[in-house]
Write a structure and sequence with these properties.
- With 320 residues, this protein is of the alpha/beta class.
- It contains eight helices and 14 strands.
- The protein folds into two domains: 184 residues, P-loop containing nucleotide triphosphate hydrolases (Rossmann fold, 3-Layer(aba) Sandwich), CATH 3.40.50.300; 121 residues, Heat Shock Protein 90, CATH 3.30.565.
- It is 33% helix and 25% strand.
- Strand 11 and strand 12 form a beta hairpin.
- Helix 1 packs across helix 2, helix 6 packs antiparallel against helix 7 and helix 7 packs antiparallel against helix 8.
- It starts with a strand and ends with a strand.
Amino acid sequence: MSVSSSSTASAGPEPGFRHELYPYRGDEQFLAGTLGFIREALEAEEAIIVAVPEEKASLLREELPDESAVTFVDASSVGSNPGRLIDAWTAWMSERGDGGRPVRGIGEMAWRQARSAAHLSELRYHEWLLNRAFARSSAWSMLCPYDAADDDQNALESVSRCHPGIHQDGRSVPNEGFLGLDRYEFDELAAACDPFQELVYRRGDLSAVRSKVSQCAADAGVPEDRLPRLAVAVTEIATNSVRHGGGQGTLRTWKQDATFLCEFHDAGYIPDVLAGRTRPRADQPGGRGLFLAHQLCDLMEIRSTREQGTTIRLHTDIPQ
């Protein structure tokens, strides 16, 4: 499934923006590529933000003692939901780039720790969305290390297509396989698992939606302290269906492995691919529902086209 953006976009990011994939094998290659990227930034008096797994951060700290221009951040602080990361990077960049100072980021996703195919798919989608979120930010660039040691060429190619550049032999080269800014090829949503519960809701049915989800979630093993958060998230999504999706929607709930899922489908269309990924402004008259759902759930998938309407899946992890 491919989805086009409603806004006009060029085939690649504007000059000045760099988003590069860096495939590496082993700690030595990891350090060679990342340290070269950092030293280039230091020579240009740019700030650097590093968000990599702790074992990789330790390697870099040993090589960069007392380097004040380099800030290490804990990406796990925003949780495992990739939908929260663009907002986090925006905040980190704003803090370090105060006064217009150029900022470089090094971000390595936890690809090997992906909990499911859906989680892996959302990690890739986040990488593509970075190009849209920061396409006009000429004062920012990002290097994405990727551990290619397992020789999974299909996975590497899939991730590569989300990056306009490849970091190779200490320099950036254009990636001819980049998808571009105006279209993304989604993985199809897996079918709902039987048995699933279904409810058609309309205006005035929000209480019934909350009650249905709470009961099904509790039956599936979702901890009691997670139920209020889930209730807020489903209320926001169902409200959007009623207001913007033709006045009604269909809710499905089911358990799949160690995840409880709530799926909402309606006839609406969400044209903004970044909807819910960035923090709403204080004076913004709407747009908080999707952002809240991202903060409250462990994963959120959105598929929206003019022809097929909108499907949103909320994932809540179930402790084992």
